[in-house]
Each structure stands twice: as structure tokens, then as C-alpha cells.
Amino acid sequence: MSTTQMLKGILDGCLLAIIKEKEVYGYEVAEKLEHYGFNTFSEGTIYPLLMRMQKEQLLTSTLKKSTAGPRRKYYSLTEKGEQELERFITRWDYLQSNVNKVLTHEYGTDK
């Protein structure tokens, strides 16, 4: 399984966390992901996710003037989006903890 396949389920949570920080536009989300080391995701991957999340009412968007070029669509979390982020964090903590236990053999020894 590739890293990209493993990350697909995690990407939604990462996008919600980035957008919770402040209102951002799509290209800015891609830049932030790259800053955090996720350089395998292009804008072509991110925009469909943002549109789906908006349809699911996790995000809202606003068109704003840009100093360079056309208006940009800025995304922010809805209350439902904030709740989904909290659920993601809870699930992530649980999964991360259990995977780490398996990888480090924290509980007992192999027989």
C-alpha cells in the first residue's frame, strides 16, 4: 500500500484542522500541506475534497478580491465542520495509540 493510499482517509481531518486555524483559499491549503511534509497532494486532489466537504456542510466559502488576478474562494469551518474535526481527532488518537502499541509490541511478547 502506498503512502498516498494510507493518507486518503486522513486528509479530510488534516484539511479541517488547517481551515480551522483561519479562513484559507485552496492554493493556500495545498501550500500548508506541503509545509507540513505532505508533498504528494496537488491542488487537483484538494479542490474536489473541499467541494465535497462544502456539500456535506462542513465548510462554507466566500469569494474575495485578490490582489493578483481573479477573486479567490476562501473556506472556513461550519459548526458541523468543527464537530467533525473533534471526532476525527478522537478517532486519530485512538488509531495512533493502537498502531503504535502493535509496532512497538507494548503489550506482551510474540510467541
Folded structure, characterized:
- With 111 residues, this protein is α+β, with helices and mostly antiparallel strands.
- The protein has a single domain (3-104), classed as Arc Repressor Mutant, subunit A (Orthogonal Bundle), CATH 1.10.10.
- The chain contains four helices and three strands; from the N terminus they run αβααββα.
- The protein has a three-stranded antiparallel sheet.
- The two termini are 27 Å apart.
Task: For the structure shown, list the relevant keywords.
single chain; 111 residues; alpha+beta; Arc Repressor Mutant, subunit A; 3-stranded antiparallel beta sheet; 4 helices
Question: How would you characterize the largest beta sheet?
Answer: 3 strands, antiparallel
CATH homologous superfamily caption: Winged helix-like DNA-binding domain superfamily/Winged helix DNA-binding domain
Integer average pLDDT:
88
* Quaternary organisation: single chain
Describe, in short, the structure shown.
The protein has a single domain, classed as Arc Repressor Mutant, subunit A. 61% of the residues lie in helices and 13% in strands.
Write the layout of secondary structure elements.
Layout lengths: L2 H19 L2 E2 H10 L7 H13 L3 E6 L7 E6 L1 H26 L7
Antiparallel strand pairs: 1-3, 2-3
Helix pairs in contact: 1-4, 2-3
